[in-house]
């Protein structure tokens, strides 16, 4: 007796979860403003966390944590407070420049921040 072998294969919607998609990343270089520290460091994080979530980075010098983005309102008292480091610097009359870096041929975003009035 010969039986036919059948297999059910679940098909997922490819448009919802693309395979091999590269998630955009951001890189931030800054100088720690904690008194007696002044360590300059570079940190990398996902663009999604910067625009939709919370980003904290630790200074390798003093181990202080710096808030880079708070889109969930975890560290703010009101909805009117700045949500990203760009907003915070602009609120203190600092300068922010956003550009692109092409190190791997694909490109990425870079944020340059110049401190303003304290």
Automatic annotation (TrEMBL):
Pfam families: zf-DNL. GO terms for molecular function: protein-folding chaperone binding; zinc ion binding. InterPro entries: Mt_import_TIM15 (IPR024158), Znf_DNL-typ (IPR007853). One of its GO terms (cellular component) is mitochondrion. Keywords: Metal-binding, Zinc, Zinc-finger. GO terms for biological process: protein folding; protein import into mitochondrial matrix; protein stabilization. It comes from the Eukaryota. The keyword Zinc applies. Residues 23-118 form the DNL-type domain. PANTHER family: DNL-TYPE ZINC FINGER PROTEIN (PTHR20922:SF13). This is DNL-type domain-containing protein. It comes from Malassezia obtusa.
